[in-house]
Every structure is written in structure tokens, then in C-alpha cells.
Design brief:
The complex is a heterodimer.
Chain A: H1 8-15, H2 20-31, H3 34-50, H4 60-82, H5 90-93, H6 104-121, H7 124-135, H8 140-147, H9 151-170
Helix pairs in contact in A: 2-3, 2-4, 3-4, 6-9, 7-9, 8-9
Chain B: H1 3-14, H2 20-32, H3 34-53, H4 61-79, H5 84-91, H6 96-116, H7 119-137, H8 149-159
Helix pairs in contact in B: 1-2, 1-3, 2-3
The chains are: A mainly alpha, B mainly alpha.
């Protein structure tokens, strides 16, 4: 297949590079840490560049995020086998920052903290559909395609979001 | 529809992702059931809360810079290898007509690939089939539950302007 290579890097920069923020956001949510997220995104971009000739002009953001997601999953798996269970993080798992009633700004801030903690604690497959749907605005169908799961699974995972997130405020 | 079924459908309905027929059935249930309607309201506000309060991370500037330089060097590396025609060209400076011809070829290729791409058509077919299957399962909106002409005729005259003979 004759594909003019010299245009590819410009095309890549124009089409794929602008989606760096959603790529990083997804990776950060999946990997938990800044450095891990950066490394994953960097690897994903290299993979995307490698497979760029397979990109057929569909939604570049979805295409890239699929690569980011797969890269993160591979990295999470190797990380998991390296140290079987994560140490219990007092900071993440403590419920000490309860809101003080009456101060709306403080209350909102701790609501934010509680919600983000609750999301961080969710299993990764639930977390990713929430991030893709609520933060990146993908439809159920797009998520099903992106995560390679049936649309019914997307539906049931997003149905679980209410139960999981409501609890974080119920204890407050 | 009972409350258990309704509760299962509420999240998708709140996301506007539920198909028409179950949506209508759920709406009917929500109108008559304060408990489920309360669950629906809570779901809506919870989703809004997630959207508003969940952290959205921005890529650090250093990462952008790192990617750009890395992609630049990758591009140079792979640029020299692939196609004989281009390697001859890339020895010298790529001339303007060549660049034009190349981008035209790329466009034609893209158009060809898009035109040939039948996966979207397959997707559509699947959708139509499943929509049809669903419509067979639920009480179909446009079904008249009788073949008796005294039932069918008034039903029709409600829906269409022209009269049945």
C-alpha cells in the first residue's frame, strides 16, 4: 500500500496529538498516580504512532483512548503481579475529612474529596466506564466499542455507579 | 412494569440511553410510582454531581513537550525506511508538486477506505435487527389488540387523516 510517509507525522500531530488531555485524564484515573499516568500515555502515543497507518479516519479521540486504555491495563497487570496486593493507604481509606455542617464551601470541597476518593476506590472496570461516560461524554455504544464489552455490560456497570457513589455521601 | 424492573432501567433512562419502547413504559411507571420517581430524581442529581465534582486531570506541559520531541525523532527514523519512491525523494528536498500528489493520493486512499468500510453498515444492520427484536418483545406502540373492524377503524381514524373504506 503506497502511503506517503512524510505527511504522516504532520497528520498525526494534527489528528491525534490534540487529544492528549483526555488521554492523560483516562490514564490518570486508571493508574492512580501522575508518573504512572505519564508513562502510560507516552507508551500509548508511541503505539498509536506505530499503528497510525491502520487509523481509517474514524473518531481519533476514541481510537487513541482505546490504545491508552489497553496500555494502562497491560501496565496494571504487570504492576499487580509485581506486588500482589497494594498496601492499605490510610490517607485514601480514612473517612476523617467529614464535612462540617453549615459551611457550604467547605462542605462542597469535602463532598468533592469524598466523591473522588470513592471513585478511586472503585474497581478499575467500573471506574473507567464512569470516566468515559461522565467526564469524556462517550455514549454507551462508544464505550462498548472502546472497552470491547457488550453494551449490556456498559449499562450494568453504569447502573452500579449510583450505589457506589451514593454511599460515599451517605456516611458523611 | 414493576419497581424492580423500573429501578434497573432508571440509570440508562437518566443517561438518555434507553430505547423508545422501554422509555415509554418506564415513564408510565414513574408517573404512578412516587418511590421510583424519587430514585430517578436522585440518579439525575447524582450524575450531575459526578460530572461537576470528579477531578479532570490535565496533561502536564512537560509531557506534551516530551511527546513532541519523541514523535519528531520517531518520525525521522521511520521516514527513511518505508517506500522506495519516497526514499528517493527524501534524499533530496521533497518538491512541492510531489507533496501535492502525495496528499492527493492520501485523500483518494482515505476516500477509498471509507467507502469500502462496511463495518458501520454491519453495525446498522445489527441495530435494526435488535430494535426489531425489542419491538416484538414489548407491547408494540402501533399494535391494535384486535382484528375487529369496529376497534381497528376508530383506532385508525385517530392516527391518520384519510378514511378507511
Amino acid at each position: 500500500m503506497e502511503c506517503p510517509r512524510e505527511n504522516d507525522s504532520q497528520r498525526f500531530e494534527r489528528i491525534v496529538l490534540p487529544h492528549l488531555n483526555p488521554a492523560y485524564n483516562l490514564a490518570r484515573w486508571l493508574m492512580h498516580q501522575d508518573q504512572d499516568a505519564e508513562d502510560a500515555v507516552q507508551e500509548a502515543y508511541l503505539r498509536a504512532w506505530k499503528f497510525f497507518d491502520r487509523f481509517q479516519g474514524e473518531d481519533a479521540r476514541a481510537w487513541l483512548l482505546k490504545i491508552v486504555r489497553n496500555t494502562c491495563y497491560t501496565r496494571l497487570k504487570t504492576k499487580q503481579t509485581r506486588h500482589e496486593s497494594a498496601p492499605f493507604d490510610e490517607e485514601i481509606h480514612s473517612d476523617t475529612n467529614q464535612p462540617k455542617a453549615g459551611d457550604p464551601i467547605l462542605e462542597n470541597r469535602s463532598r468533592k474529596a469524598l466523591l473522588n476518593q470513592a471513585l478511586e476506590k472503585l474497581p478499575v472496570d467500573l471506574r473507567e466506564v464512569i470516566v468515559l461516560h461522565e467526564l469524556e461524554g462517550f455514549s454507551y455504544k462508544e464505550i462498548a466499542e472502546l472497552c470491547d464489552i457488550p453494551i449490556g455490560t456498559v449499562m450494568s456497570r453504569l447502573a452500579a455507579r449510583a450505589v457506589n457513589c451514593k454511599n460515599c455521601w451517605a456516611i458523611a | 412494569m414493576n419497581c424492580k424492573e423500573a429501578e434497573n432501567l432508571v440509570p440508562a433512562y437518566a443517561d438518555r440511553e434507553l430505547d423508545l419502547v422501554p422509555s415509554l413504559e418506564l415513564e408510565k411507571h414513574l408517573d404512578s410510582c412516587p418511590a421510583c420517581s424519587q430514585i430517578y430524581k436522585e440518579t439525575i442529581s447524582l450524575n450531575a454531581n459526578i460530572k461537576e465534582l470528579a477531578d479532570i486531570y490535565q496533561a502536564p506541559a512537560s509531557l506534551t513537550a516530551r511527546l513532541k520531541s519523541q514523535l519528531g525523532s520517531q518520525a525521522k527514523e521511520s521516514g527513511a525506511v518505508p517506500i522506495p519512491v519516497m526514499t528517493i525523494e527524501s534524499q533530496s528536498r521533497v518538491s512541492y508538486p510531489w507533496a501535492l500528489a502525495a496528499s492527493f493520493a492520501a485523500m483518494m486512499l482515505l476516500a477509498f477506505l471509507l467507502g469500502r468500510n462496511n463495518s458501520s453498515q454491519e453495525l446498522m444492520t445489527n441495530e435494526v435487527v435488535s430494535a426489531h427484536a425489542r419491538s416484538l418483545m414489548a407491547n408494540h406502540l402501533t399494535d391494535v389488540a384486535s382484528t375487529d373492524q369496529h376497534t381497528v377503524k376508530p383506532w385508525f381514524s385517530d392516527k391518520v387523516i384519510s378514511r378507511l373504506p
